[in-house]
Amino acid sequence: MSKVMEKTATEKTETVEAEHPAAPFLRMDRIPHIWCPTCGIGTVVRCFADALEHSKVDLNKIAIVSGIGCTGRVAGYMKLDAFHTTHGRPVPFATGLKLGRPELLVTVFSGDGDLVGIGGNHFIHAARRNIDMLVVLVNNFIYGMTGGQNAPTTPISARSSTMPFGNFERPFNLPHLAESCGASFVARWTSLHIRRLTKSFREAIARKGFRFIEVIAPCATLYARLNKLGTGFNLMKFYHDNAIIDHDADTRDVDIRFQDKIICGKFVDEERPTYSEMMHEHYTRILGDKFVGMPPEGGMIRDTEEKSPSKGKKATKERKSKTSKAKSAKSNETGGK
Ligand SMILES: Cc1ncc(C[n+]2csc(CCOP(=O)(O)OP(=O)(O)O)c2C)c(N)n1
Ligand code: SF4
Fold first, then answer.
1. Relative to the CA of 41, which ligand 1 atom is closest?
2. Is the pLDDT of residue 3 over 70?
3. In terms of DSSP bridges, do strands 105-111 and 62-66 run parallel, antiparallel, or are they unpaired?
4. Which domains does the chain have, with CATH numbers?
5. Which ligand is nearest to the CA of 143?
């Protein structure tokens, strides 16, 4: 639709009203959103929308589940079957949904406090069972929505509203937590890595099992302000200068330290039987024909163009020692490319 605006009697300016490319994936009637200027959550949503668009996914077969928090609002803004659940409970909700409707691509989108603070127990058991779901965790190192309290991801010495003299609790190393619990796909990016994050979403959409993507994203209003780190733009510049892409990194070595290097990459991509597949195999072996299984998982969502990983790829991958990794880190790419 185009509109002609009158500037003066003689001079006319034409403005073109175009639809935002992500609009088909968003509930535009809910816009403007609640997120602060320069908050990183919107960028992650945009990357996810791009990935959906290019993955040829049947949108009727996707469900998105969020908990409570600024990131927890994502479910409310996406034009998909969406569930805004209680604090810390998107993963058990998604588990029930997946078991009841195995053909769906079930995606959880939430914050670090929601998923690994109050919801930590559910997170580790869903990963352990390799439940078929994609979990996207937006990590802003803090509880955003409730005023910047310390989170299980706050780096040591970083300030939060409940640790005004700096955090002294050891934070989770989330890729390592996910891998050691049994996740079959593990990646970390920052909200600056829009192309790589989008690619990771596309890959993860095509995989099965518990898939985990951590996205480091700015909370300028609380985390940056409490730590005197400047604006969201300054945090993006920090990611640009300090993100190191190292797909071969051992997840034991990817801890995040305050204002230090951020190791990003796809760390795990291994095909393993999902919870439902294991259950089906187990009961069929024991009960034979008496066992009435569920329909296969996935349905149309597996018909994507993304290549499948080789089985046990990670198991054969050589783990680098800390010293060789530190050397190669210098020559690795930095963020945003
Ligand atoms: C049972 C319960 N406890 C506490 C809260 C308050 N609460 C709402 S959101 C939130 C933290 C959210 O932090 P995070 O998941 O990191 O998301 P962010 O806002 O940073 O995106 C808390 C503690 C709640 N809603 N329900
Ligand atoms: S408080 Fe932080 S996380 Fe929440 S919307 Fe604002 S910038 Fe984003």
1. 21
2. no
3. parallel
4. 39-276+305-323 (3.40.50.970)
5. 1
